[in-house]
Amino acid sequence: MYLALSVLTPFLGAALVAWLSQRGRAAAAWGAGGVVLLSLLWLAPLLPAAFAGETEIQRLTWIPAVGFDLVFRLDGLGLLFALMILCIGLLIILYARYYLSPRDSLGRLCAYLLLFMGSMLGIVLSENLIQLLVFWELTSLSSFLLIAYWRGRKAARRGARMALAVTGAGGMALLAGFLLLGEIVGSYELSVVLASGDLIRAHPLYETVLVLVLLGAFAKSAQFPFHFWLPHAMAAPTPVSAYLHSATMVKAGVFLLARLFPALAGTPEWTAIVGGVGLATLIVGAVAALFKHDLKGLLAYSTVSHLGLITALFGIGTPLAAVAGVFHIINHAIFKAGLFMSAGIIDHECGTRDMRRMNGLWQAMPHTAALAMVASAAMAGVPLLNGFLSKEMFFAEVAVLGGRSDAGWLLPVLVTLAAMFTVAYSMRFIIDVFFSGPPKALPQTPHEPPRWMRVPVEILVVLCLLVGIFPAQMVGPLLGVAAAAVLGGPPPDYSLAIWHGFNLALLMSVAALIGGALLYAWREPLFVLQRRFEGLLDARTIFEASLAAAIAFATAAIRRIDTGSLQRQAFVLVLAVVGLGAIGMAGADAALTGARPLLPIDGMTALGFLTLIVATLAATVLHRRRFLALIYVGVVGLIVSLAFVRFSAPDLALTQLSVEVVTLLLLLLALRFLPQETPVESSQGRRWRDGILAGLAGGGIGALTWAMLTRPADSIGGWFLENSVPGGGGTNAVNVIIVDFRAFDTFGEIAVLAIAALGIFALLDKFAPVGLERDPLGHPWDRDLHPVVMSAFARLLLPLALVVSVFIFLRGHNLPGGGFIAGLITAVALMMQYLANGATWANERLSPQTHPWIVAGLGAAVLTGLGSGLFGYPFLTSTFAYFDWPVVGKFPLATVMVFDLGVFLVVVGATLLIQVNLGMVHRASPAEEGRGWRP
Amino acid sequence: MEALIAIAIGALTGCGVYLLLRARSFAVVLGLTLLSYAVNLFLFASGRLVVGKPPIIGTADTFADPLPQALVLTAIVIGFAMTAFVIMLALRMRADLGNDHVDGRD
After folding, report:
1. Fewer CB within a 10 Å sphere, N or C end of chain B?
2. C-alpha to C-alpha distance for B75 and A97, rounded to whole angstroms
3. Where are the domains of chain B?
4. What is the pTM of this model?
């Protein structure tokens, strides 16, 4: 429970902070800090066990039907990452409070940061692989928001999109890898996966899984050749860069390498791919970093390079290398966060990040300079600082590995070369920024930053020193449990000491320091050399070109499919359906006619169907004369309801009849605002083409109906008939199904009805129709006299009609009727008043805004549903009892009556809302101005 | 009897499809109305044709299948809501674009 809370707190906190930010920046910052602390607090009770090396697994049941649970896991590795994410996150929020200019919303930044933090925590604390992937994708999404924080800037949007595209594509590969992994192991739970290393490595799909998972991890951790997104992500505000590129986002990839180390590592393929890619990234990043004049650009490539180092360590695959990898994860997070923050301070104070312009800042900000110098010395791997220790372990492992083969000597040489570049760019960061003459044309005069802006950097730099000098005391326990979790067993003996005696690793370190200093001294000729090759192979250009090509392809494809013509689309759709149907029918080897005995034809029914067919054809042939066609459609509807009567469906007949009235009325109203005739537009050929297709469709459906009707039925209807009385307390099985057995469906259906009505109401807003102002006889529409006889009758009829609908409603459970039909009858009765007495008269007595009816109806339905929850039953479980009333006799009363009442109210409300409001749309003729009502 | 209803459903479908393919919104709405009759009848007929045995318990020994009837009952009401929405869309299109062609251009 605590783990889930810890992960969820930042997500909920994000909304809280977004809301708090209305009350000012301080509120947002304190709120965000509080959320992080709370998240830490949830972990606190679990810390002792985690430090003791135990693995805590907490499970929340989610969808038990498909065996899907929310499972969280806290072991040493998760603990290390969770602490890094939360503690550095806290420092970042403090820093952002002072970094962000008052023009930018701190609340938005903090909210995004918290979203991101929650997603990261989700990754490192997930036990289920699929769940891990969901959080993985969430980090891609929330980092997109963070990088594009300054959404007005093109570079920010472009950088964010690139990061999302690359890491998102990696996520796809990862999903495929996880699915395969789950298939191989038979479970998505990490505990099982991590214990099945031998099974996975021996499986024929091992290579596929490995490549897919590594694609995901490499894209996230900016490994060569996917490294190009990271420097472009520097368009983000510096606190974001400091967070994403030190302790979190890019570390998710190496976290995954560490997490799956027991399951996937230990094969030659692993060593070749992971080690090779890591080494390449290490070198490419280090070399590129030296040539960046932008302060953050240098740090970005340095991050790429250090991630390569960590990847290479996991790639080497020995237990000692894995320990060193975990150690470097910690060290890199500490010094790189500090460096990014220092770079942000310098940018904040100077107004530029170009190292060719800012020199001699030592004079202006000695305090910041000292901090930045310590941090970059840690990055370079200078003794007594944390970076030295893990780098030394890396050198030692490389030296061991290099000694194993003939060409192995190349490995230490390459690594030392990369380390030289690391030293050189670190020196550049120190000397070019803080020394080497006075500053050149800075946009603003630099000062020391606000006191509290420096505090996070101070904390991190002190950590660099403490870890560097007292490694065993500072990080020993944490590193121990984390390494044990990575290795899936006790870690090997290693010594966290500064001095290991004279060995090859020390020699490499010294060579790197001296070589780096020389490289730095000769940087000018190197810069000249680099300028000659600049832009020759720019990953960004390749990425943008392939992106543009993909977009062009998609646009062309869509243009071919979607011509913007509805007729064409509809034709293609019907053609496809007819084609599929034809294929299906042609492929079937059964006869068209089945064995079921046929019903005899009687004259009345035959006449009815003949009328239906004639009216249908007439409506189609005469469709240009719209009024006439509409009348024929009405005839069709009436015969359909008669067909329901004939074939034992009284409920349907009642419904169809009342719906028919309402529909016809609606279409008549609508026809007023449309042309009365349709012009001849389609060519003869087109009409033939459509006619043939329509004939095929009709023939196909007819044949299908025939085939179905002549075959015996096998239905679950019998169950409903048997249980209608004992289970639902009603003898009308149709109504019992609607309000009881399938009430949840009905609830959805009345919701659809309500939404349609509201949609129509919205469409009526500012509706300015071009309609007829006069009827065919020359009278203005709104001057229609209401015939006295009709209006008197309608008024007399109203109470009668309402009594009928009450009757229909009440008997609905046992005899044909119910909420739908009663609602329609009531609506028709009320609409009669509008027709007979006019809108003005009716509106004085009944508001045309029937939204409350709909609300009350849906409310009644929901409350009945929830009511069953009070008694511990599932949503919409019904109950009923028999009552004995003196005059009426014994009758059942079911809770579904309330539900049916809800149906009734929604039907009345929705129907009236549609009809009355459309009916009242008109342009008042001059004499009637002011009397007319408009919605 | 089965042949009659099969022909009727076929005719409704064919005419509905033909009207659906017309260029003016009103014809399309009529076509959709005819198609919804066809669909409702088809669904209803999937319970097979039974004469004189409505599914009211206690009136007979065997009954018509109540399940397709319950499905069709709500489908009729939803069909009305759909027709209303589409015709309103057509009206709005005519008012805002000045014509009633389904593509919004004459």
Report:
1. C
2. 58
3. 2-97
4. 0.71
